[in-house]
Model the fold of this input.
Amino acid sequence: MPWNQGGGGGPWGGGGGGGGQRPNNPWGGRPPGGSGGGGGGPKGPDFEDLVRKGQEQLRRYFPGGGGGAGQGLSMRALGLGAIVLIAGWLATGFYRVEPANVGVVLRFGEMERITYPGLNWHIPYPVESVIQPNVSQVNQLSIGFRPGQEQRRDRTMLDESLMITSDQNILDVRFTVQWRIVDPAKFLFNVASPEITVKSVAEAAMREAIGQTQMQPAMQNRNAVEQRVRVSMQQLLDFYGAGITVEQVQFNAVEPPAQVIDAFRDVQRAVQDRERAQNEAESYRNDIVPRARGEAQRLLQEADGYRQQIVARAQGDVAGYVALLDAYRLAPEVTRQRLYLEMMENVLRGNQKVVIDQPGGSASGQGVVPLLPLNDLLNRRPAPAQSGQQPAGQSAGQGATR
Done:
């Protein structure tokens, strides 16, 4: 010890060889009757003896230590080293969380808390440790193919992509899934292999959707199938408590297997030709039917107008006949003469007429010369006169008499 254990009795002035213990000794000293003091009774722990043994043990680790001053320096160096070691150990608890990550602090393997971007501290290893999952990165998973290997697909890829439709056809479906971590605690502790889980869930959801859809709608209405698969995946991952959100499901290819692709394309071309012919026929029908309907409507309107005209004319004729009958009843002879004259007017209005005025003629026809071809004379143009010829129409008459 650095103090003198002789007659001074230690730093508190303990008793010497024969005077017994002073009452101000904090360790209580030896009870009366002990060795060096007389009297019996049980002995208490000898603290000085324990300290002496500890110093001997330290000398083994620090063999260069000599006297009391050397021993004190060794103790101070040991304490300083221990402080430096403890400070270094505590300093290892500082860590930085990147902006795209969060820190999940584990205490003896169990989640303790979540820390956010910036400088943080935790109890150093082995008490606590930190995992920093990336919660901002959008992860992409390819099913049925691998990027850059579309032309070299192995059996594993074909097993992932070949699916059967509801109408018993086979489709080669290749698609990608984009997903992101939203709950790091669930992501780390509820699912053992997140990527394998997402892949299995995506394949199961796609097989379910394709199995409930016919071949043509599955190939033509891709957006509806993609949305259906995304919703089904999200529901299943939420049921597992995976802490994952599905951002997008996108088809890379939806087509028949390579063994039948040529035959299927022939069928597709035939279907397209059929649809084209149907469209052309529909276009022709849309052109001719309205035209025929318009023509039929025109004929109906003309017939209706003609009907109204005939009915109105018949009604007018009936009214005229009734008025004529009333006039005939009032003056029969005058009405009869009037009817005769009107009839003759109508008969002779459009005919050619030749009036022969011969005084002295009688009803028996005496004195009437033979009738010349007056109609021919009227219709024939006069020819230019020539010497030695008579004009036409100067010859004797031909035909019947009148």
User: Anything to note?
Assistant: The first strand starts at residue 94 and ends at 97. Residues 1-42, 387-402 have pLDDT under 50 and may be disordered.
